[in-house]
Write a structure and sequence with these properties.
EC 4.2.3.-, binds magnesium ion, mainly alpha, about 60% helix, Terpene synthase
Length: about 350
C-alpha cells in the first residue's frame, strides 16, 4: 500500500494574529511580545507539523521546574537513580513546555512543568505496577488532588500523593479561578489511565480514547491557565470539535515518534496507533507508520479549519483568537519536540 505523505507547508505569519491585533494598552502588557522565538523546523527533517513552532523566552527558568520535579522525585524514589531516570521534557530546542506554551506566564509554565514532569515520572513507575492494581493506585492519586483530603501515613505511595496534594494547593494559590479546571483534568486523566489499553478494534475508536490518555485535556487546561484565560462553558462548547481534532493530532503525533521506544514493549502495555492500524488494514509496520503520518496531517488540517471557524464565530474576541493560535503552537511544539527529544530518539538522533 502506498500512502502519500503531504509535505508540511508553512504559510504562517511570523507573529500570531492575536498579537498583531493587540492594542498597546496596559492590559496587553502582561503579554511580552518578545517572549517567544520562532524555531526553524526545516532543521528537523523528521518533524511533519504544519503549525508554527516557538520557544518561550524564559526557557531556562521553565527547565528549572523540570529539575525541581526530578530532585523531589529522587528524594521519594531513590531507586529511580538506578533506573537512570529517563529524560522527560528536555529537548534540543528547549524544554517541552517552553515549546508547547511559548506565550504562557513564566511562573505558571514553570509550575505546570514541575507537575507534569512529576506525572511522567509517575507514569514510569505505573508501568511497573501490575495492571489489575494500577486503577486502584491511580484512583488514590486522583483523590490526593482534593484540597480537603490530606494524605495520611508515610509510605512511598503516600509521599507521592502528598506531592500531588501540594501541587493542587500551589495551583490554587497562584490562581484560584483557573486552578479548578486544571485539577479536574489531572483527576480525569488519572481515573481513565490504563482503563482500556489494548481493547481497540479500529483506529477511530483508538484515537478517540487516546485524546484523554495522551493527556490532551491536561495540556489544554494548562494552556488556558498559563495564558491567564478561562473559556466560558459556552466558548468551551463551541470549541469542542476543534479540541477533539487537536487532541487526536496530539495523541497520534506522540504515537508516531514514541513508537521507536514502544515497539519493544509487551502488547498489553502499548498505547500506540501503529499496531492498531497495522491490524485493521493488514499493513506492514512500515506502511502503518506512513498511514499514521497521513492521519496526523489530516487531523492538523482539520484542526486549522475548525480553528478558523471558531475565530469567525467569535470575530473580535481576542481571547478566542489567542486560544486558537495557542492550540496550533501547542500541536506544533509537541510535534517538533517529539521528533528530536532524547526520550523518544536515540543518541545519534532519529532524523
Ligand atoms: Mg507514546
Amino acid at each position: 500500500m502506498s500512502v502519500q505523505v503531504l509535505s508540511p507547508s508553512l504559510p504562517h505569519a511570523e507573529r500570531p494574529s492575536w498579537l498583531s491585533s493587540l492594542p498597546r494598552t496596559s492590559s496587553s502588557r502582561s503579554i511580552n511580545t518578545t517572549s517567544a522565538t520562532k524555531i526553524d523546523i526545516s532543521s528537523s527533517p523528521s518533524c511533519i507539523t504544519t503549525f508554527t513552532v516557538r520557544v518561550h523566552k524564559d526557557e531556562p527558568q521553565i527547565t528549572q521546574g523540570a529539575q525541581a520535579a526530578r530532585n523531589t522525585w529522587l528524594d521519594i524514589v531513590p531507586s529511580a537513580k538506578d533506573k537512570q531516570l529517563r529524560s522527560h521534557s528536555a529537548g534540543p530546542h528547549g524544554n517541552f513546555f517552553a515549546i508547547t506554551w511559548p506565550y504562557g506566564k513564566m511562573e505558571r509554565v514553570k509550575l505546570a512543568t514541575e507537575i507534569i514532569e512529576t506525572l511522567w515520572m509517575y507514569d514510569d513507575i505505573a508501568e511497573d505496577i501490575p495492571q489489575n492494581k494500577a486503577a486502584e493506585v491511580h484512583a488514590k492519586l486522583s483523590d490526593s488532588l482534593e484540597a480537603d483530603k490530606v494524605p495520611e501515613h508515610s509510605s512511598r505511595k503516600i509521599l507521592i500523593m502528598g506531592l500531588f496534594h501540594g501541587f493542587a494547593e500551589r495551583l490554587v494559590r497562584m490562581d484560584e479561578e483557573g486552578a479548578a479546571r486544571v485539577i479536574d483534568s489531572l483527576k480525569s486523566y488519572l481515573q481513565n489511565y490504563d482503563s482500556k489499553k489494548g481493547a481497540f478494534p479500529d483506529i477511530d475508536q483508538y484515537a478517540e480514547f487516546r485524546i484523554v490518555n495522551v493527556g490532551f485535556w491536561i495540556m489544554e487546561s494548562f494552556m488556558q491557565w498559563t495564558l491567564g484565560i478561562c473559556l466560558t462553558e459556552k466558548e468551551q462548547e463551541m470549541c469542542h470539535e476543534f479540541c477533539l481534532y487537536a487532541g487526536r493530532a496530539m495523541g497520534l503525533t506522540n504515537d508516531l515518534y514514541s513508537w521507536n521506544v514502544e515497539r519493544n514493549d509487551p502488547a498489553d502495555r502499548q498505547w500506540n496507533a501503529v499496531p492498531v492500524i497495522k491490524k485493521q488494514y493488514d499493513l506492514t509496520e512500515e506502511n502503518a507508520v506512513v498511514y499514521l503520518k497521513g492521519l496526523i496531517v489530516q487531523h492538523e488540517q482539520k484542526t486549522r479549519q475548525l480553528g478558523a471557524e471558531v475565530r469567525k464565530q467569535c470575530a473580535g474576541s481576542r481571547k478566542m483568537a489567542k486560544y486558537v493560535d495557542a492550540m496550533g503552537m501547542m500541536l506544533g511544539g509537541n510535534c517538533l519536540w517529539s521528533s528530536n527529544c532524547p526520550r523518544y530518539n536515540d543518541e545519534a538522533g532519529n532524523e
